[in-house]
Amino acid sequence: MKINKAQVIIGAFILFWVIFLGWAMIKSTFKLSSGKSAGGQTDSKLDLLGSILPQQKTTESEKTPPPARQESETVRPLVRTLRIKTVDFRDVLPVMGSVKGKTEIDLKFEINGVVKKIYFHEGEVIKQGDLIAELDPKDAQLKAAYAKNKFNSAEAAYKSALKKLEIHKSLYDSGAIIKSKLEEVELETDSARYQTETARSEMDLAENELKKVTLFAIKDGVMGQREAEEGEFVTPQDKVAALYEISEVYVEVGVVERDIEKVKVGQKAKIFVDSYPNTTFEGKVDYIFPIVEGKSRTLTVKITVPNPDRMLLPGMFCRAEILIIELQQALIIPVTSLIYTKTGNILLPVIPKESIRKQEDEMEIGVLRLRNVSLGYKTSDYAQLKEGAKEDDQVILESQGEAKLDDNIEVRIIGTEEVNF
Fold first, then answer.
1. Is 93 helix (H, G, I), strand (E, B) or coil?
2. What is the pLDDT of residues 25-44, one digit of tens each?
3. Labelling 304: which of 14, 187, 198, 328 has CA 20 to 30 A away?
4. Distance between CA 127 and CA 107 in Å, rounded?
């Protein structure tokens, strides 16, 4: 293939420009990377390159560098707070249990017999001395009659022995009989006297047993469930009924193991029953059982409750609130706001009242302080603040975002709550 002269000239011209442009681009790249260009001036060869390459459009943002962030535009953490106020604080322990009589007396006959009559109804209020029930008295009456006859016979024999002794003493005094004969009569008289005393005791016993065929109430109270029926044979081991003294009652409640240390004898309590939803009964802790029940792991506590109107009846289900502590005009804060350090100190993030100011948009800004605090009484939710903050200071409840709450930083308050019990 023949190559003419024109083709050689054109090829040489193209090769020249390729070499020239490549050298210019390498030169420009080297100068830009070394940072030696000054005052926005470029090398003359780069100007030439710029005149040859097509111009690119420059946006307004590329022409103007972004302004530096001003100090006044520092981002402040957003927080919700609680305004500290002095309040009357009560901590109560809710428990459940049932009503029991102050005394619960099992009513039983003291002798065997057949129940003749029952005179009470279950739940009936009775007075001391009221007749509860009686046994068939026939057997007891026969025993009493037999014992009385036996006593009369023994008494007659004793009188006869006394008369005989009197005669023998006269005979002995006149010398008609010897002394041994008199002593024999004296012994017979002593025997008759002892038999009379024995018969008297048997008669008294029989008369006392006759009295036991009747069963009376020994106290004012209310009758429980009937345990025997008319015509039934009962023994002294068989319960006929129970008598509950209810002028004062006990409420037995169960306290779980973790709350045992909170309960003390003498603490006040309020009692509520479904039968009287609008009535609150007052009582106090009277006795704490020394044994924790096995499976339930609860401790039984007895609360004494006055019951003059006999509204509370044994067996009623009830709810109770034991007053653990009552504080007057105390500073109360939520325990979730407290910070426990490794050294044992307790810190509280506080916004002092005097550091709070309002912006133009009415949002409050305050300076956060991390203060060491001293606590008094503490529950699982609240604590009594004794030192470290004062009334109308605000404590942090919640912070928004990832900003760290350090000491002496400004925060924006987006909501404020108050303690309300």
1. strand
2. 766 655 544 444 344 443 43
3. 328
4. 15
- The position carrying tokens 């007075």 is 127
Give SS3 for 186: helix
Identify the H or E element spanning 45: helix 44-52
N residues, the chain: 421
Strand partners, 418: 83
Instruction: Identify which of 180, 156, 154 has the alpha carbon closest to the alpha carbon of residue 168.
Output: 180
Contact 165, 186 (CB under 8 A): yes
Check residue 324 and report its DSSP letter: E
Strands (DSSP E) found in 257-316? 268-273, 281-292, 298-306
Q: Which two tokens stand for residue 260?
A: 């045992």
Q: pLDDT tens digits for 69-79?
A: 444 446 788 99
Other beta carbons within 10 angstroms of residue 193's beta carbon come to 16
How far is residue 390 CA from its own chain's centroid? 31
Token pair recorded at residue 297:
């792991």
